[in-house]
Amino acid sequence: MKRIIFWVILKCLFAPIQSKAASGFITYSGMFYSSISEEVIRADNPNVYSVNLVKRKPEFGNSEDFGTVCLADIEICSRIEENSTLYRKDENGNFIIHSVADKIIPLNISNWNGYESFPLCGISEGTHSNNYGGQCYVSVLSNGSRTIALQFFVGKNKGCRDMKKCFADRMKTIRAVVNSSLGSQ
């Protein structure tokens, strides 16, 4: 009997609880996030929504992952000011992710195309903060009628060459959230 109760408790603690945002744009794991909020930040054509995934446990001062959902293709959305904190086009037409991303990598998932990058981001440890002490992951993907940009804090900057290997465990959760956002049409 004790074994069964212990097994049930473990299963409940570690089960990947899935919850969906009210708009249906994003499905998220209840293991890592306590809630999600979405808000219209641009009501003109095309509409743009902000998305905030609130973490169950803040990491180095980062209490949420965030992004935008723009209801148009990547070319149109990259020119909209509300998306500019995550991605934009510069005056020469070059695609830019974040302000301090060093390498932008093409990304294709099913019929979604776009880019990904691992920009540096801020962290806080006690009373000290460092604008470049953290490592983030940003993906910007579009299917032609919707563009989804999400930024995730993956951990402390370790100076890794292969970010996907260095942060492999965190990337599994991130991929699940990104893939869930692409599956909701």
TrEMBL record:
Signal peptide: 1-21
Entry keyword set: Signal
Protein name in UniProt: DUF4468 domain-containing protein
